[in-house]
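Hi there,

I know you've been waiting on this one. I reran it after we fixed the sequence typo, so this is the corrected version. Both the input and the resulting structure follow.
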Amino acid sequence: MAQIFDPLPSHSTNPILCCYVNATSHIQIARITNVSNWYFERVVFPGQRLVFEALPEAHLEIHCGMMASAILSDTIPCDRLNIQEELSTPFDLPESPEELREGTDLDSDRTTTPATAAP
């Protein structure tokens, strides 16, 4: 995955793909400052998922606060935010329409009602 803004330094080896989710109801600033010759900073809105490349030794700082103040609220090692670029096992997709219909009631005249949770 290529980062258009603020690419990793050219001498970087083994970058990892990371994901951070802002699970709060406040705007946050995500920042990486511990990698030499590189500065990474993004605004992360509530509920937003931030996907980025970083070095395994990088630390993501999460800053939150109001208007003119920003408070460092968390520091997360990027290797803990690592996600896989590819699935480890492929999906078993049906090869024919018959395999797709197998085990379903598409051809029956029976109507079903959705299940509801018991009170």
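Quick highlight: The two ends are 47 Å apart (CA to CA).

Best,
R. S.
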